[in-house]
Amino acid sequence: MTDSPASRPIRWFEDYVPGSVHELGRVEVDLEELLAFGRRFDPQPFHVDAQAAAQSNFGGLIASGWHTAAMMMRLLALNFLCPESSLGAPGIDELRWPRPVRPGDVLSVRVTVMEARRSQSKPDRGIIHTLIEVLNQNGEVAMTCKPTNLVRCRPA
């Protein structure tokens, strides 16, 4: 993963080809970040208290699903969306967390472009629909979602 915008390719709507698959890098789930996120944003016992989490149906601490989504979003923003062309997202469909994320897990993000069509009302942009999968180090799916993004078309 890179944090340098200069090293990112510029992608326009035309570059998001239906059927293309993009691997966005990895992030390790840090225990202290997991606890801090849970305490601040999702203070359920299985996110913030190791003893209570051990007694829960999860059998130990797990990341908030929203923390998992935030880690995914960082990789998406740095390695898939492009600051020159991204116009935001009007929404996300079918957000799912089928498997818990635990401290020490190494997550990777895979994006598949499902559909790309030019806007009829604003022809300077397109609409892309993607499937995002967050996988743990064992290749097991921990999160999925289907966002819609608005992306500028390549300048003439």
Describe the structure.
- There is one protein chain.
- The mean pLDDT is 95.
- A hairpin with a 5-residue loop joins strand 4 and strand 5 (141-152).
- The relative contact order is 0.24.
- By secondary structure, the chain is of the alpha+beta class.
- The protein has helices at residues 31-41, 45-48, 50-55, 65-79; strands spanning 21-28, 91-96, 106-118, 125-135, 141-152.
Indicate the overall shape. Answer: elongated
Quaternary structure? single chain
Helicity, as a percent range? 10-25%
Q: What do we call the CATH homologous superfamily?
A: Hotdog Thioesterase
Mean pLDDT: 95
Radius of gyration: 17 Å
Give me the CATH architecture, please: Roll
* CATH topology annotation: Thiol Ester Dehydrase, Chain A
What is the CATH C-level name?
Alpha Beta
The counted number of beta strands is 5
Counted up, domains total: 1
- Count every helix, treating DSSP H or I runs of 4 or more residues as helices: 4
